[in-house]
Amino acid sequence: MSYRLTRWLGNGLVYAVLTFFAIIMIFPFLVMVSTSLKEPADSYSYPPRLLPREIATVAVAGYDEPLPLYTVPTEAGPRELALVGTGTRIGVYVLPDDPTTSYERSLRDVDAAGGALNQETVLFEGVEEKLWAFEVDGRIVKGVLREQLALGEFVDPADPSAEPIQFDTRRAEPVAMLTAHPENYARVTELGGLDRSLTNTALVTLLVVIGQLVTSVLGGYAFARLRFPGRDSLFLVYLGTIMIPFVVLIIPLYRLMVMIGWVDNLAALVLPWIFTAYGTFLMRQFFITIPKELEEAALIDGASRLEILRRIFIPASVPALATQATFTFLYAWNSFIWPLIVINTANESNHVLTLSLSILRGRATDAPNLVLAGAAISVLPPLIVFLFAQRFYIESVTSSGVKG
Asked: Do the beta carbons of residue 324 and residue 240 sit within 8 Å?
């Protein structure tokens, strides 16, 4: 086997494996988006379908509204017929001593003939079943109800005057067509107040991202380039705060918000989180890798520390800034525990998306399409930000510093 063929097969295998796992990872997202465009009935369809569909309708002469279309098996083969109405409910009965023979009787007629015989039961196929009275060849017999049929009347849309065909509506196959309901997003916005929550979340996230970038750049530059007593020890102590679990900080941080008067205020979602040891560490490590010659040359030319930071370090640290901004954006956008604690649930004007989605889950329990539409509104902005920012992850830090 030639080297080129071996390499081609190896690359093909790698791409096949990566594509397989990519499909697995993206499939839940596709389900969320497709379900958000469905009707509630389509969300519960079995077997499940990925693309949104609904029952096709057809205009039939003599009827004011379009009628649903079904595929009904007939003697001439399957036909697409319109359902004009539901007919009699039929029960399929068998005799306990002759289960191979079944009898179809109207449930109404069986009830009129006596119905359940004083709750008389019989052991049938290992299960205690009620006995029902119905007529067979002029005599009343006792039988067990095996199943129920809901007969519907179906007509040919091209010839509605023909004799209707009666068939079990549960066994008729609906004629489905691809559809989409983008109005679900407008409905969920009105139902859950997501418009105000989306605005609050965008404002809080933007302020947290800007605040963390500013404090991280200033702190990272100070720890990387400025010399002062106890610098390294102070940095180690500050870095050690990363190991403190958030659950330990909840109570003292909440008491501090009570003292300041920021409970149930958007300021409590912003100011406590604009300082980050992780961001300071990230920027410090990045600034250390920037050649000192650039800074020394700027000092010789008379540039101040702030000018050096603004004109050299910040332009050279775009990859690190983009990385931190992306991580901060994802954290602030998806934050749930702290907003749940510090924002009153009844105060919808200060809700963020995570709180509104939690409430929406209870309000729209029977409408998964609306719940997933709200989830899509929450997921799409971080996804877009990540897609635009990911290219910065692969840029060379050193080459960026030299370009600056």
From this structure: no
Convert the pLDDT of each residue in 184-235 to its tens digit: 888 888 776 788 888 999 999 999 999 999 999 999 999 998 888 999 899 9
* Superfamily for the 185-403 domain: MetI-like (1.10.3720.10)
- Residue 313's closest CA among 206, 204, 224? 224
> Max Cα separation, the chain?
116
| Each residue's pLDDT tens digit, 95-110 | 888 888 888 777 777 7
- Give kind and range of the element (H or E) at residue 123: strand 116-124
Helix (H, G, I), strand (E, B) or coil at 144: strand
The residue ranges of every structural domain in the chain are 3-53, 54-178, 185-403
Helix axes 183-192, 368-389, angle to 10 degrees: 100
Residue 228, both tokens: 């002062």
C-alpha 215/C-alpha 218 separation (Å) is 5
Q: Is residue 71 within 8 Å of 175, Cβ to Cβ?
A: yes
Residues 133, 142 contacting (CB under 8 angstroms): yes
DSSP string, 37-77: TS-HHHHT-SS--SS-EEE-EE--TT-SS-EEEEEEEETTE
b/e per residue 292-325 (b: at least 16 CB within 10 A): eebbeebeeeebeeeebbeebbbebbebbbbbbb
